Amino acid sequence: MKYLAEFRDGEIAQRLAAEIRAITTRPWAIMEVCGGQTHSILRNGIDQLLPPEIELIHGPGCPVCVTPLDMIDKALAIAAIPNVIFTSFGDMLRVPGSDRDLFRVKSEGGDVRIVYSPLDAVQIARENPTKQVVFFGIGFETTAPANAMAVHVAKREGLTNFSMLVSHVLVPPAIDAIMSAPGNRVQAFLAAGHVCSVMGFWQYPPLAAKHHVPIVITGFEPLDVLEGIRRTVQCLERNEAKVDNAYARVVTFDGNAAAQALLEEVFAVTDRAWRGIGVIPASGWRLSAAYADYDAEHRFDVGAIRTTESAECRAGEVLQGAIKPSQCEAFGTRCTPRTPLGATMVSSEGACAAYFNYGRFHTLERASSATRDSNTSPKAATVG
Amino acid sequence: MAEPINTTWACPIPLRDYPSIVIGHGGGGQLGNELVEHLFKPAFANDELDRMADSAVLTLPAGRIAYSTDSFVVRPLEFPGGSIGALAVNGTVNDLAMSGATPLVLSAGFILEEGLPMATLGRIVTDMAAAAKAAGVRIVTGDTKVVERGHGDGCYINTSGIGVVRDGVQLSPTRATPGDVVIVSGTIGDHGMAIMSVREGLEFDTTIVSDCAPLNGLVDAMLAVTPDLHVLRDPTRGGLASTLNEIAGASGVGIVIREAALPVLPQVASACEILGMDPVFVANEGKLVAIVPPQHATAVLQAMRAHPLGSRAAIIGEVTSDHPGMLVAKTAIGAQRVIAMQLGEQLPRIC
Prior knowledge:
Largest interface: A-B, 63 and 42 residues
Largest sheet of chain B: 7 strands, mixed
Oligomer: heterodimer
Strand order of the largest sheet of chain A: 4-3-5-6-11-10
Radius of gyration of chain B: 21 Å
Strand content of chain A: 15-25%
Number of helices of chain B: 9
Helix content of chain B: 25-40%
Order of helices and strands of chain B: HHEEEHEHEEEHHEHEHEHEEE
Low-confidence stretches of chain A: 362-384
Distance between the termini of chain A: 31 Å
Largest sheet of chain A: 6 strands, mixed
Structural class of chain B: alpha+beta
Mean pLDDT of chain A: 90
Structural class of chain A: alpha/beta
Shape of chain A: globular
Strand content of chain B: 15-25%
Helix content of chain A: 25-40%
Distance between the termini of chain B: 33 Å
Shape of chain B: globular
């Protein structure tokens, strides 16, 4: 595939890794903000090519993971209302709310549908004028333009049966919060390339200066990630707190002006609770006053939501880089993709799910010492 | 590669009174009989079915009997490269073939939804007949029920099949042995992405065609090289990764595959990237994975490549005594990762 195989070249990867090893003189803790990067790192085994001094800390950039529990519960309540068609991206369906998930609501008779674009939800609204169609608009700046466009189109067409449950989150305030948190260990950031393709990176120089931290705009293919890490280490070794763009084939400084204008029109900045982390001021988008009629939170009264988070889940610490998923007591035993205690075990971008699916809960060396004569060794059973 | 076999179908005269299925087609009366007489019997044309007894009575060649059943609920009913009818025949034929059996006869049970266009059913049945002919099996018994509108997705089909296992063949998921070679018969993920590409809300510019095909001919060619193949499986739902995980678990061995060696069509790779899916977990309907003793691997691979359904066969990995029960992939950049079983269906990612 054009622009895919090229960025997965094994030889170039080895060369980049050798360069990184050559310039690394001491330990560095680098956070990849985006869950897509976490997924790519673990799927391709990028971390295995790095020198032991480089620690990758997996950041909070998994939209499914940080969507607050009360929002999930609201989604579940709205989806269960008769005459509502509740639409969502696929990986939200398995995220546990306080007592169930959207798959369960669907099995109990709720009309829950997976869509691939928010505009598909608008189309469903056109085709079902007697039903209320709700789209679960979550995610970072990456998904926001399409969500904004869906609301914009619905308003332009006067579709009165479409609304959106919005829980958008923003990257720069999260970086600011992580750097300001007591006990922070993060020394540099790989910024999320897709977010920057929309927003540009004009928001980052003030953050880099404020916290004296290098921020390198980084893509998602193995070579993109390795190049981002190489430039980051270079900055760290030179004590340069600059913003660098290692994803120039996609990202420009100003970003997508048309998308930003639409976002400004449709959304307004708001304080936002991040699941597992807490409220970060001015870290999210809600629908602006001009689009308030399309806000599902206004349209449907689902009563007071009382959330119950698993007492055992340490997703918050994972999302802030305080612990690795495998350091959680419940990881791989009481908490698996089959029985997730928190959202980080659900989405393929969630650090816990990535660790689980790519077998990072025990090393292959340990596994190979397991007894050979058993058809159902405990390790095999855990993997399955 | 299986050609699309959706043939045009002309509705026979008595069926023209009902352009779509009505409840009466599932009753024991005249309408049901017309379906059998003018649709099923002419399409499946064989003496055993023509006898119209309550059960087929078979005389089978000597040997061990393989017996398998599968139900088909695919949506949409017709897709690039096949239909539920072709799937229903090939699915059971392939399950029999994976045991080293020569598939002989099938049953076909239909659950039709009231309102299913007669022309659609006609094409599905024509596809079944064509697939059965291609696979060399006879559909010798069947049943039709009709459910009320809204109680089914147009058409569900169950098939079961009987085959006779060749002498000297001992295929079993438990027989993978360290040192064995893992061979896949062609590109992976074609069927699953073909279905995804025509589902509501997803339109791709390029057409991805299902690989739906009967594999018994390919298995014949492989077993002609040596009867001592260890495992054959067709990686349908859950894809190659689930199948290899199951074999690793059943045999108590580890399996290592090289990602760079996996045959994947460019359009399938692209579609998977767009949706955040991994082709190793995507369904196939005309591919098999073989676990072969190393001394036979080259000859088996050559025999597969000489067959039209195995032209892109490739050695993708080995069986090892390391990490029993686990499937490990060497990634393109020279690292490795565990490929665990998925919980259920892969869900398209948000971004």
